[in-house]
Amino acid sequence: MTLASSVIEVIGGTPLVSLDRITQAYGVEGRVVAKLDYLNPGFSKKDRAALGVIEAAEAMGELRPGQTVVELTSGNMGTGLAIVCAIKGYPFVAVMSRGNSEERARMMRALGAEVILVDQTPGAERGQVSGGDLALVEKAAEQVTLERSAFRADQFQRDGNWQAHYSTTGPEIWEGTEGRLDGFVDFIGSGGTFFGVSRALKDYNPNIQCFIVEPEGAAVLAGEVAQNPNHPIQGGGYSRSDLAFLDTSLIDGYLQVSGEHAADVTRDLARLEGIFGGFSAGANVAAALKLLEGPMWGRTIAVIICDSGLKYLSTDLWA
After folding, report:
1. In terms of domains, do 172 and 265 share one?
2. 180 φ, ψ to 5°?
3. Which domain holds residue 132?
4. What are the pLDDT digits (tens) for 74-93?
5. Can you tell me the distance from the alpha carbon of 31 to that of 18, in angstroms, rounded to the nearest whole number?
6. Is 15 a residue whose pLDDT tops 70?
7. Domain boundary residue among 152, 168, 183?
8. In the listed set 89, 117, 152, which residue is the last one of a domain according to the structure?
9. Is 89 inside any structural domain?
10. Angle, nearest 10°, between helix axes 279-293 and 259-268?
11. Is 66 exposed, middle or buried (0-12, 13-18, 19+ CB in 10 A)?
12. Does 1 have pLDDT greater than 80?
């Protein structure tokens, strides 16, 4: 192990763990392997995307020294950007819905970010951020970017997002499984993780099947009309079908998981595997178990543990 000159040099390279206790408890044949990206410095997979977006912008001359960086976030991308910007000397402004957990805002502030919280749509429930809430955050982020002549680290549009996962996360999963992998599932937020990892894995083996995970009642990428855009799985499922990275050639299927089931599996991950993840981690594992119960019985499926359960202590996930 070498001495790093800064914390951004230790982003990535997270452990890969076989969830044998979960598969046994749920009575399925096969293996779920989990990439523990909640062990990144900012406690989420978004550290990779944040570093990828900033370094791509620097390389292309889109980001001036000392320029303010602004981003819409549910908290994880903002935390990653707060870390990267602190090390590289860019002021950072995170724009986030009040519907997201307070822990995230506190962590970003602790890391030196300015956090602007945007009120939810009328009647919205805290902890359940809808596409309408996200639209309000987007409007606020655009205004702040304009007012401050800032660089917008747009995770929904900038290729540095998916490229970070293509160059690091995907190859790490392939190497960690020694190529013995049949599938990959991922809960969709910006789409950067799914499309970066899926593209990398299919470069190694085109027969690996990759599945998008969405909340029940908000599976618009699967072609359904959003009936229930309010759900507790923070960080995705915003009923957006306009994802810039959407490449249907990489999608082998669509899976839906309820917020309640995602929470139950998240708690089982902690209780059975000692993995303290968030809602989306539970959604990913629940989707993988669904595949092992049916069409991929006996196979090996990779998932991402997207972020830490520490970011949800104020929610009912750990009540």
Report:
1. yes
2. -90, 80
3. 46-152
4. 889 999 999 999 999 999 99
5. 7
6. yes
7. 152
8. 152
9. yes
10. 90
11. exposed
12. no
Closest CA to 278 of 156, 154, 104: 104
Measured CA distances, 46 to 61, 148, 209 (Å): 22, 24, 23
CA–CA distance, 133 with 147 (Å, rounded to integer): 22
Backbone angles phi, psi at 307, to 5 degrees: -155, 180
Q: Residue 135, Cα to own-chain centre: how many angstroms?
A: 19
Give me the pLDDT at residue 104, please.
87
d(CA 170, CA 42): 20
Tally of domains within the chain: 2
Q: How confident is the model at residue 229 (pLDDT cuts 50, 70, 90)?
A: low
Q: What is the CATH number of the domain that holds 125?
A: 3.40.50.1100
Active-site annotation holds for 311:
no
Report CA dihedral (260, 261, 267, 273) to the nearest 10 degrees: -170
Marked catalytic residue, from 97, 190, 280, 308: 280
The residue assigned the tokens 């809430």 is 133
Out of 35, 45, 46, 88, pick the active-site residue: 46
Given a contact cutoff of 8 angstroms between Cβ atoms, the answer to whether 136 and 96 are in contact is no
What tens digit of pLDDT does each residue of 40-63 get? 999 999 999 999 999 999 999 999
Global pTM value:
0.93
